[in-house]
Amino acid sequence: MAGGREIKTKIKSVQNTRKVTRALEMVSASKIRKAQDRMKSSRPYARLMRQMIGHIAKANSEYVHPFLADRNEVKRIGYIIVSTDRGLCGGLNSGMFRRILADMRQWQEKGVDVDVVCIGQKAAAFFRRLKVNMAASVTHLGEQVRVEQLVGVIKVMLDSYEEGKIDRVFLCYNDFINTMVQKPVQDQLLPLPPSDELETKHDWDYIYEPDAPSVMDHVLTRYVESLVYQAVLENQASEHAARMVAMKAASDNATKLIDTLNLIYNKARQAAITQEISEIVGGAAAV
After folding, report:
1. Contact (Cβ atoms closer than 8 angstroms) between residue 109 and residue 77
2. What is the pLDDT of residue 218?
3. Cα separation, 278 vs 13, whole angstroms
4. How far apart (Å, rounded) are the C-alpha atoms in residues 32 and 237?
C-alpha cells in the first residue's frame, strides 16, 4: 500500500485538476447561451435561403446554373469539414471524423479522389496526417464568427466545382439538437440536392435582371456561404454544450476519486497507528 505522503500528493493533484474542469465547465456554461442565441437568430435566414433556392431549382428555366446541374460521373469529391479549435469537448470531433472517414473509404474504393477544406484547428490537424488533399483551411475564428472569415475557404471549393475539378461537395458539421445531444451531419452542398418540399405539378419561371447567369451566380454563392456560416454556428453551440457536459462528468469523477483516495489514506494512517501501538505494547511486555 502507498505511503500517506504519496496518497496526499495524489489527492492534491486530483483537487487541482477538479478546479480546472470546474472552471472550464463554468466558462462553457456562460458562453453557451450566447452561442445558442447567435445560432437561433441565423436559422430563419438559412431556412428561407433553402426554400428560395429549392424553388429556383424547381423552376422550368432555359438556363441551368452549374451549381444546380447534377453530374453523372463522379471522379473527385470535396468535403467542407467544420470542427472546433480547442479540445476537451468529449467525443464531439472524433465522432464526426469517424463518420467522414467511413464515407471517404466508400468513395475511395470506387476510385474517387477526395479534397478537403477544414474549418477549425482540430480538423486541420487531423486530416493533415491523412492521405487526402487539403485544399485550404481556416482556424481560430473566435467566439463571434463573421462570414468574411469563411469566404476564402468557401471560394476555393466553389471555384474547383465550377471549373469541373470537383463533381460533388459535402458539408460536415455537428448539428445542435439540445444541450445533451449533438448529432454529426453530412449534407450534400453541391450540386443542389432535389427538394421534396415543393410541388412539381405546375411549371414556373423567373425573369432575371440583368441576366440569369449573373443573378444566379450571386444568389447561389450567398446560399452556399449562408449554409456554411450556419454550420459553423451550429458546431460552435455544440462545442460549448459538449465541453460543459464533459467537464461536468470529469469534475464528478474527480470528486469520486478524491473520496476513494481519502478512504485509502485513512486506512493507511489507521494501519500505521495500529502498528505503532502494537510495537509499543510488545516492547512494554518484553521489558
Report:
1. no
2. 85
3. 33
4. 6
pLDDT per 10-residue tile (average), the chain, 287 residues: 78 93 91 88 84 74 78 89 90 91 91 92 90 87 88 91 90 90 90 59 67 83 90 92 92 93 87 80 74
Residue 109: closest CA among 136, 157, 74: 74
Q: Determine contact, residues 48/139, Cβ cutoff 8 Å.
A: no
Which runs of consecutive H residues, i.e. helices, occur in the chain? 4-58, 92-109, 121-127, 151-162, 212-286
Q: How far is CA 80 from CA 48, 170, 179, 254, in A?
A: 22, 6, 24, 37
Beta bridge partners of 26: none
Strand, coil or helix: 261: helix
Element spanning 113, H or E: strand 113-119
CA distance 232 to 81: 10
Other C-beta atoms closer than 10 Å to the C-beta of 195 total 14
As a whole number of Å, the end-to-end CA separation of the chain is: 32
